[in-house]
Design a protein that fits this description.
With about 375 residues, this protein is an alpha/beta fold. The chain has helices spanning about 5-15, 25-40, 55-60, 75-85, 100-105, 110-130, 165-185, 190, 215-225, 245-255, 280-290, 315-320, 330-345, 350-380; strands spanning about 20, 40-45, 70, 90-95, 135-140, 195-200, 205, 230, 235-240, 270, 280, 295-300. Helices cover about 45% and strands about 15% of the residues. It has a seven-stranded parallel sheet, with helices on both faces. Helix 9 (about 215-225) runs parallel beside helix 11, helix 11 crosses helix 13 and helix 13 packs antiparallel against helix 14. The protein is globular. It contains 14 helices and twelve strands. The protein has a domain at about 5-200 and about 240-275 and about 310-330: 3-Layer(aba) Sandwich (Rossmann fold), CATH 3.40.50.720.
């Protein structure tokens, strides 16, 4: 299927369906909720309350777009089960998590409870609702046993995790695979109608992330306050991508899971950038400051808990089997991120429109990316 045709099919796939997004008040969850609303879905959110009024969920007034806005803990199995009973979701995107590496060193037990036991609670609720359902469990590129290798990790590489966050996400992958194999085997999907996939995305940036200990929010705070930004690991290489890139992947997985004729989608998937998106933290900071037109940074010089210094993903499987491929290059990704924060700085009331514009531009560029190989062939 061509990418333009694929995206056109999203509306017919999600329109009128009940979709539950856990973690909808977070960065990726809020953007996904808006995109699903644009596609005509009945979006229900389940998450803790937003922790920053400047974050995209509140700045873009995402709650106004929801059919249900439930604030509760993913570990509250009784509450989660009652929500499943009320909503009867056709699709579940599970993004609720403790998402920060450094926070996981401070709260390792809570990180594990939230991430893999929260996933266990969710999958138990899926098992109890006794209806067809497409489930996309979002984990991370950090779920692999990282050997600091220069080539990208593939979906069948060994899981691991040095820090509590990464380990909890590797455990989440195992929990999801266990539920799939034990209760919803892929070769019986035509009978039970439940598909479970996991999605491992790279480092996402974009407008509206105000979490602590993340590079883009730290830069924006420094720029607004006219302060030099202290950077922990300027030489660390990460697979940077705009938040809409993996969300496009999640939608692609769910659309295939909803079609029981494509049971092969019920597996693990990587979503990351092309080679030009694998850049150092210093590269990101320098380009961000260049596009902003101001700013300075320096290494902070302190000792910090272990974080991976080199991380890359292989996306061959998603490209060849889902028809997904990155849309925005590194510069466009950073440029769109800068534009969003500048817009928020000047007029927060327009942020929902800013998000809609970014989604519209992204969808348009999906189609342009599809046309480029054809134009090259014609020119030759």
């Amino acid at each position: 299927m061509k990418r333009s045709e694929q995206h056109d099919s999203f509306r017919s796939c999600f329109q009128g369906r009940n979709v539950l997004v856990t973690g909808h008040t977070g960065f990726k969850g809020a953007w996904l909720s808006m995109w699903l609303h644009e596609l005509g879905a009945n979006v229900f959110g389940y998450s803790l309350p937003p922790d920053n009024k400047k974050g995209v969920f509140q700045a873009a007034k995402v709650s106004s777009l929801l059919s249900g806005d439930i604030h509760a803990d993913i570990r509250d199995h009784k509450k989660l089960t009652s929500v499943f009973y009320d909503v009867r979701p056709d699709v579940v995107f599970h993004l609720a998590a403790q998402p920060l590496v450094r926070e996981s060193y401070a709260t390792p037990r809570e990180t594990h409870e939230t991430n893999y036991m929260g996933t266990c609670s969710l999958l138990e609720a899926v098992r109890g609702q006794n209806q067809a359902c497409a489930v996309v469990v979002v984990t991370t590129d950090k779920c692999y046993e990282n050997k600091e290798q220069v080539w990208g990790y593939r979906e069948n590489d060994r899981l691991g995790g040095h820090d509590p966050y990464s380990a909890s996400k590797a455990a989440t992958e195992i929990v999801a695979a266990s539920y799939r194999d034990s209760f919803f085997p892929v070769n019986q999907m035509h009978k039970h109608g439940i598909g479970i996939a996991t999605a491992r995305a790279g480092n996402v940036i974009g407008g509206g992330d105000w979490a602590k200990d993340r590079i883009v929010p730290d830069m924006v705070r420094g720029l607004i306050n006219k302060k030099v930004v202290d950077i922990r690991n300027p030489h660390a290489v990460r697979p940077w991508q705009h938040v809409l890139e993996p969300l496009h992947g999640y939608l692609s997985i769910a659309s295939q899971l909803l079609d029981s004729r494509v049971p092969s989608a019920s597996t693990a998937w990587n979503f990351g950038p092309h080679a030009d998106g694998h850049k150092t933290v210093g590269d990101l900071v320098s380009l961000f400051h260049e596009l902003w037109g101001d700013g300075d940074w320096e290494p902070d010089g302190f000792e910090h808990p272990h974080e991976t210094s080199f991380l890359s993903l292989s996306i061959d499987k998603a490209v060849n089997q889902l028809g997904w491929t990155p849309t925005w290059n590194f510069r466009k990704t950073v440029s769109k991120t800068v534009e969003w924060y500048r817009s928020q700085q000047h007029n927060e009331a327009t942020m929902q429109d800013s998000c809609r514009k970014d989604i519209g531009d992204f969808v348009s560029d999906i189609n342009n990316v599809q046309l480029q190989p054809l134009l090259k062939q014609q020119a030759a």
